[in-house]
Amino acid sequence: MNRNPTEKKTDTENTCSSTTADAASTAVAVNAKTNRCRDVPHGPLWILRDSWTEALRHLRILPRTVDLMIFAIFQPVMFVVLFVYVFGNSITVPEFDYKQYLLPGIFAQTIVFGSSFTGAGIAQDMAQGLVQRLRSLPMSQSAVLIGRTISDLIRNSVTFVVMLLVGFAVGFRFNGSIGDTLVACGLLLGFGYAFSWIQALIGLSVSSVETVQSAGFMWMFPVTFVSSAFVDTQTLAGPLHWFADINPFTIVTNAGRALFNGQSPGNDLWFSLIWAVAIILVFCFLSVYRFSRFNR
Amino acid sequence: MVTAVQTTDLCKSFGMTKALVGVDLAIEEGTVLGLLGPNGAGKTTIVRILATLLLPDSGQAVVGGVDVVAEPHRVRARIGLTGQETAVDHNLTGRENLQYIGQLCHLERKEARRRTDKLLEQFDLTEAGDRAVKTYSGGMRRRLDIAMSLIAEPAVVFLDEPTVGLDPRGRLAMWDFIAELTSGGTTILLTTQYLEEADKLADRIVVMGYGSVITEGTPNELKQRMGAKRIEVELYDKADASTVIDALTPFSIPGLLVQHHDRTVTVPVEEGARLLPQMVRAIDAADVSLRDVGVRQSTLDDVFLILTDQEVEKSPGIES
């Protein structure tokens, strides 16, 4: 790369003076070129900017990997068809038309399954060596994870809209106010975002994309099926009943279901919010910590 | 002279494995340091520490006047890293990859675009620039990878085996390019397995083995020290090798071993032409018939082999 003299000059002009002191403090003699201070940006604003740059990279790829999206949507659609038309007649739930009962559960499940893209994406970036490159850049390091979870939130929103349309097609209706409906949508997506952080930690901890997928399903299947999403938890036996009732996925499903059906979600709304925030805080911390320990 | 990169007594262990045991390096600004060594010698560990990817257990590492442990963020603003594995997003195009890294280095959009165009051209990727990287050949990916590490025009560049996976033409182009980069004042740390590459590109060479520096100097110094010439004797019969080694050892430079591989015996010497007749007589006296004998210039391969062989003899059984 030929740097012409004018370019070099601009570089020097851009240097800031604050480096002089610490340059002198090191034993190594350095001249202006190696030690030019590009005033490395940092702070919350730059975390957001770098995160958005990362998110844009993932979003840009979405239209090029439409097949992935189609398969991601195909599975919940099949669940809708299976449960509405195959099992629907043999499953009864108190006080609900089964469609009105089932669809909010499938929405919630779709969003939680959608969070597995976060783990797979991070594992892929690690596998293709990109994470190593990003760690050598003067960018915010947590932006790697924040950008990924933000882009997956947007991806999940798209999937959610498609699922809503599928729901309407099979006869699902919003019975609550517009406000209730929006709160329910926000709650489900927020819960999906929280689960993205769990997946982020998994993505950072395993060795390949395939492992993320199997590891993800290992816990996502029990969490979403042993819950109130498909059946009334009263029908479950002993320990399963106990697990289904404390399962945060049950709580968020119940809250969403109540709001979609124009009922009061009661404490479920607050508990599910607390769960979402708690999961985000804990797993965001653990993921960022894990990321920062890669240099050990 | 100004030092761009310096390490002092750098140590790093991974569990029981000692990857670095007290490495001192210094690279003068605007020069190329070639880091040579067999697999597991610790070359990549040094690069990873200098690029802030890995913390040393002890010792100091300073890049561009900034301590890599104390202020990694500021070090990152001064360096470009091309690791052993290519690090590109396969779903993006070449152009998008470059601009994306430019943005993360906080270049202005216009500037990022300008440098992207320039780098695509320099690395012969202009035509492929708008194609997804997954359609690229291995060599193209490698070129893009290196271009990405240069988008911020860093003062110090780490190239960890940059020509692995390139075809001969690509390798030559890469050499030209690295030479051009240094003429612009960039400091380069180059690790390589190819001695020809180090000979061609490096101003100074450090040979490593088992986590420490075995020797260093300019390519010429190393060749001088390890014998400027080699006398190579080819035998008809492998079985004669030990007889010939015994006969020729007195002619070898003191302290350097006579090398032997299959039917070829190689003797490091200072002046080949003067010794050759005596050596032929010595072999004759030992009653061994030769297939061929000749004098040749020493290469870095010779230096490398002789040094690493000695290391193996010195520290038997150490696995790295």
Outline the structure in words:
The complex is a heterodimer of chains A (296) and B (320). Chain A has 296 residues and is mostly helical. Chain A folds into 2 domains: 1-39; 43-292, no CATH class. Chain A has helices spanning 5-13, 19-25, 44-61, 66-87, 98-114, 116-127, 130-135, 143-169, 178-205, 209-225, 238-246, 248-260, 267-292. Chain B is 37% helix and 28% strand. The two termini of chain B are 35 Å apart. Chain B has a 6-stranded mixed β-sheet, sandwiched between helices. Chain B has 320 residues and is of the alpha/beta class. At the A-B interface, helix 2, helix 3 and helix 7 of A face strand 1, strand 5, helix 2, helix 3 and helix 4 of B.
Sequence of strands across the biggest β-sheet of chain B: 6-7-8-3-9-10
Find the biggest chain interface: A-B, 47 and 57 residues
Q: Using DSSP, what is the number of strands of chain B?
A: 14
The succession of helices and strands of chain A, N to C, reads HHHHHHHHHHHHH
Q: Helix count of chain B? A: 11
CATH class of the largest domain in chain B: Alpha Beta
Main β sheet profile of chain B: 6 strands, mixed
Shape of chain B: elongated
Specify the structural class of chain A. Answer: mainly alpha
Low-pLDDT runs of 5+ residues of chain B are 316-320
Mean pLDDT of chain A: 85
Helix content of chain A: over 70%
N-to-C SSE string of chain B, H for helix and E for strand: EEEHEEHEHHHEHEHEEHEHEEHEH
Compute the number of structural domains of chain A. Answer: 2
Number of discrete helical segments of chain A: 13
- How many angstroms does the end-to-end distance of chain A come to? 34 Å
Q: How many strand segments of chain A?
A: 0
CATH superfamily of the largest domain in chain B: P-loop containing nucleotide triphosphate hydrolases
Within the CATH hierarchy, at the fold level, what is the topology of the largest domain in chain B? Rossmann fold
